[in-house]
Amino acid sequence: MAQSVQTTTILEQKEEKTVTLLVPQAGKRKFEFVYQNLITFAYWHIAGLYGLYLCFTSAKWATIVFSFILFVIAEIGITAGAHRLWSHKSYKVKLPLEILLMVMNSIAFQNTVIDWVRDHRLHHKYSDTDADPHNASRGFFYSHIGWLFVRKHPEVKKRGKELDMSDIYNNPVLRFQRKYAVPFIGAVCFGLPTLIPVYCWGESWTNAWHITMLRYIMNLNATFLVNSAAHIYGKRPYDKKILPAQNIGVSIATFGEGFHNYHHVFPWDYRAAELGNNSLNLTTKFIDFFAWIGWAYDLKTVSKEMIKQRSKRTGDGTNLWGLEDKDTPENLKNIKGE
């Protein structure tokens, strides 16, 4: 039976501090490479690019469509699951949806949710410092994928031990995923997506495997763009002093995760964007659908007035998405007395 969507508007800003770490600048840190990761990622990308070639030469349309559907499902497993639900607790879910999101997240295979959440909470608490696993102040390549090729900075390890992860460690659904990570994630991310095209519509093994690799690296790089491009390119209408920015291209690729300046200022908003239910935010629509049928509830939002006031106080004066026309950059400058 359908239920009305329940939302909670946060009237006062929560305390989610961004800590600046003062690290001695005696010299550049020498990176210690993880060669296993280098080889694995190289293979995934070469195989995926070959899969792209096969899409234009010999693959069946059913295989391509199937892989795109899996791309969408997997990406939402990251955005609605690992990110908005488990990392930020911006909404709550009933057990059937939690299990569904865990399976969707496993199709994406970006480590287990427990590891993903630990890294992401560090990222928000120590954003773009040495304790941030994918510190964007080290450049695009490092924040996009390079951080996975080297050993973690000592500050990441140190601060990671101080995080409160009790809600995640005590979650039986996430404990199951971690306990059976190799067989379960291996099956839903790589095994079944390869077997289904072969046995259901006669795709070749070569095509099925390499197009699975293509889908997989597309999921990886779409998510990685939030750490890299959305921390470098774009406007900062809510806090001009931080690196996260509003990036429309990233929002398209990740179904709503690219409104990143907003998200770092208001990380508890389940929409992760000031536009809320717009055409770029498929993740929000997904959550809203399950709120409508009663599987998601206590959706946290931010009041429109708080959004406007924060932008006026600390933003860069660029356009305020979704707000009145009177809130133009020129009017904001007048309000600020510039």
UniProtKB/TrEMBL annotation:
Subcellular location: Membrane
MF annotations from Gene Ontology: iron ion binding; stearoyl-CoA 9-desaturase activity
Keyword Cytoplasm listed: no
Membrane-spanning parts: 33-54, 61-83, 180-201, 213-233
Membrane topology: Multi-pass membrane protein
Cofactor: Fe(2+)
Region of interest called Disordered, as start-end residue ranges on this chain: 318-338
Short name of any one Pfam family annotated for the protein: FA_desaturase
All residue ranges annotated as the Fatty acid desaturase domain in the record: 60-267
Keyword annotations from UniProtKB, A to Z: Fatty acid biosynthesis, Fatty acid metabolism, Iron, Lipid biosynthesis, Lipid metabolism, Membrane, Metal-binding, Oxidoreductase, Transmembrane, Transmembrane helix
Signal peptide bounds: none
InterPro entries, A to Z: Acyl-CoA_DS, FA_desaturase_dom, FADS-1_CS
Biological processes annotated in GO: unsaturated fatty acid biosynthetic process
Keyword Membrane listed: yes
Gene Ontology cellular component list: endoplasmic reticulum membrane
Family: Belongs to the fatty acid desaturase type 1 family.
The record's note on its domains: The histidine box domains are involved in binding the catalytic metal ions.
Protein name: Fatty acid desaturase domain-containing protein
Origin species: Spodoptera exigua
